[in-house]
Design goal:
Blueprint: E1 11-13, E2 17-34, E3 43-50, E4 56-63, E5 81-88, E6 96-101, E7 106-107, E8 122-124, E9 130-151, E10 169-186, E11 192-197, E12 206-214, E13 220-226, E14 239-245, E15 256-259, E16 271-279, E17 285-292, E18 302-311, E19 314-320, E20 332-334, E21 340-343, E22 348-352, E23 360-363, E24 368-374, E25 380-386, E26 400-416, E27 422-426, E28 435-442, E29 446-455, E30 458-466, H1 469-472, E31 485-493, E32 496-504, E33 514-522, E34 525-531, E35 539-544, E36 552-558, E37 562-570
Parallel strand pairs: 7-11
Antiparallel strand pairs: 1-27, 2-26, 3-4, 4-5, 5-6, 8-9, 9-10, 10-11, 12-13, 13-14, 14-15, 16-17, 17-18, 18-19, 20-21, 21-22, 22-23, 24-25, 25-26, 26-37, 27-36, 28-33, 28-37, 29-30, 29-36, 30-31, 31-32, 33-34, 34-35
């Protein structure tokens, strides 16, 4: 029986108890879903979307042929660069290789032949159409610029080069076509046609439009950046812009500046065109995240804006704090239950339950220019390029396309936020004698499972404790953050706690981390056990007591704050060692194929 933390399900004695949302991540799978036949393989910039029937589709760029002869700009149809597509109809269990082509068929103009090389975004609309952003060329306009041309094999480095190193490429003075943002549409994802080409002076300096969103009222918005370094017509200062359409994407507004909010007086010269959008619980409210190229001291590497649409062309905007650390293209996903996810390139996965006001961080796997989608079975799928990072040129790393998939459950945390005296939370009307119970406890000064509760002053407790600093400051040869920890069985008698037995926790404890605690009573035998993670041994304590009787069950803290989650109770004793929850994250290893097992050899991944 899983215990609900709703306030009316508990009786509280002492302390200040609060309930907040949490998430449990499970069933994590890491798998390579595409490895190019050519080696080294070159794949990058996946775009992922879900169609109304639940089919998940992935577009990504692939280069083939003599990699030494590929031009840096990759803007010739015969250059051996094109779009590859994968599809899954079973929520990511298997992937169909749909094929590869140097360009998509349809009425997309020739000047967009290089559109797949940009961080294009594909949106599945409610009417069944697909909209996509792309970056085309205006063949009638060009400007002089030093450009990369072809590889010089004699310069090729055989050590992993730095992100900014380009010494393996030849530079020449040349003419660069003016880049023009486009929006294209399709009914089937096969044949595409141009909806809009933003080549008027009003769009001067606007770079890629990197995200699209259809609001509940049918308005469609696209977001991107207008750059002070944009060529050939730089803007006065860097800004975040959106454009909007109220007729299904057929016509679009001129750019609307949403950052900086007070114009040129707070010029930002570090925002990028790379954005992501989600609509919030309130209709017309949007959360936008945008990459920063050069973070300011004390600020995150990304900005988030909360936007509210007041009418055509009119938006209120507010910058809100975020804890995001990763670089490159951000990726938002709002799930059916309102949970918002944001995946960073450093492996942190952020989740918000309150429309982006607060965030929790979980480490799952890196995602570099990756995208998120929620499958029909509720699981989250991330598709990312791997082994390539910022080194698509020269072609020296064996890049692959990787999927990370996981399930999650929303749950609650019961926290006690005062420090004085004992604080007890009791599950009302629950009386158990022989039983097993498991709870996750946050390591503070003293956190306990309470049982055999007769009243607020008389009960047993199995506690995980960190000793005071003078007794437990540092463990010799151990991480200095770890403190001397104890697990204790004791008894509260008339409000006074008496130790019955205690053991030192294996390897010490780190304040603020979550651990598992279990209690099992069978006849006159009482056993308590604690586990920090699967790589450490569980620590057990036990006693015998012939005076056991049925009683209540709950959690407690003593002279400290504390928090608990995932409390479960069984009315029969269960084996403790088989009842631990596996909270370990699988290693970031690819599978050997769509149905293969995990490879046993770790490799270095260049994200």
């Amino acid at each position: 029986m899983k215990i609900d933390f709703a306030p009316d399900k508990w009786t509280f004695s002492g302390g200040r108890w609060e309930i907040s949302p949490d998430v449990e991540i499970r069933d994590i799978v890491h798998r390579d879903i595409y490895t190019p036949a050519q080696e080294p393989g070159w794949v990058a910039w996946p775009q992922v979307w879900k169609e109304p029937d639940g089919t998940i589709r992935v577009f990504f760029a692939e280069a083939r042929g003599d990699v030494y002869q590929l031009p840096m700009e990759l803007d010739e149809p015969e250059s051996g660069v094109g779009v590859h597509e994968l599809r899954s109809t079973d929520c990511g269990e298997s992937w169909e290789d749909v094929g590869w082509r140097t360009r998509l068929p349809g009425q997309v103009p020739q000047e967009c032949y290089g559109w797949w090389m940009d961080p294009l975004f594909v949106l599945s609309l409610r009417d069944g159409r697909l909209l996509a952003t792309c970056l085309g060329k205006d063949p009638t306009q060009s400007f002089p610029r030093e450009i990369f041309t072809r590889y010089d094999p004699a310069w090729l480095s055989f050590t992993p080069p730095g992100v900014t190193g380009r010494c393996e490429l030849q530079l020449e003075e040349g003419e660069m076509p003016v880049q023009v943002p486009h929006i294209i549409q399709s009914r089937d994802g096969e044949r595409w046609e141009t909806v809009a080409a933003f080549d008027s002076p009003a769009y001067a300096g606007v770079g890629r439009l990197t995200s699209l969103l259809e609001l509940r009222d049918g308005t469609i918005i696209a977001a991107g950046g207008r750059g002070s370094h944009g060529l050939p017509s730089p803007a006065p200062h860097d800004t975040t812009i959106i454009i909007e359409s109220t007729d299904g994407g057929h016509t679009w507004s001129e750019p609307i500046i949403v950052y900086p909010t007070d114009g040129a007086t707070s010029s930002e010269h570090n925002v990028s065109a790379e954005t992501s959008l989600v609509e919030l619980s309130d209709d017309g409210h949007v959360l936008l995240v945008q990459r920063r190229n050069s973070p300011q001291p004390g600020q995150g590497r990304r900005i988030t804006l909360k936007l509210r649409r007041r009418g055509p062309g009119a938006w209120d905007r507010q910058e809100v704090p975020n804890p995001f650390r990763g670089v490159r293209h951000p990726a938002f996903l709002r799930c059916a239950d309102g949970t918002i996810w944001q995946w960073d390139s450093d492996g942190r996965h952020y989740v918000s339950f309150d429309d982006g006001q607060t965030w929790q961080a979980h480490r799952i796997a890196p995602s570099y220019y990756g995208k998120l989608v929620q499958a029909n079975d509720g699981r989250i799928i991330n598709i990312t390029q791997a082994n390539i990072a910022d080194r698509p040129f020269p072609h020296i790393h064996d890049a692959r396309l990787r999927m990370t998939r996981f399930a999650y459950d929303r749950s609650d945390v019961l926290a006690q936020n005062e420090t004085a005296g004992p604080a007890l939370a009791i599950v009302p009307s629950l009386q158990v004698k022989d039983f097993s119970a498991r709870v996750f406890a946050r390591v503070d000064k003293w956190s306990a499972l309470a049982f055999r509760i007769q009243d607020e002053a008389n009960y047993y407790a199995f506690a995980v404790r960190i000793l005071p600093e003078e007794e437990g400051a540092g463990l010799q040869g151990k991480d200095t953050e770890r403190r001397r920890g104890m697990v204790t069985l004791g008894k509260m008698e008339n409000g006074q706690f008496r130790f019955l037995v205690q053991r030192e926790a294996y390897g010490g404890l780190t304040p603020g981390t979550w651990v598992q605690m279990q209690v099992k009573i069978e006849g006159n035998r009482l056993m308590g056990a604690f586990l920090e993670d699967a790589d450490r041994a569980a620590t057990y304590t036990q006693i015998r007591d012939d005076t056991f009787a049925a009683g209540g069950l709950g959690v407690m803290t003593f002279d400290c704050p504390g928090a608990f989650k995932r409390l479960e109770i069984w009315d029969q004793p269960r084996e403790i060692r088989g009842n631990w929850v596996d909270t370990s994250v699988p290693p970031h290893l690819p599978e050997s194929g769509p149905g293969g097992g995990l490879e046993r050899n770790r490799s270095v991944f260049w994200w």
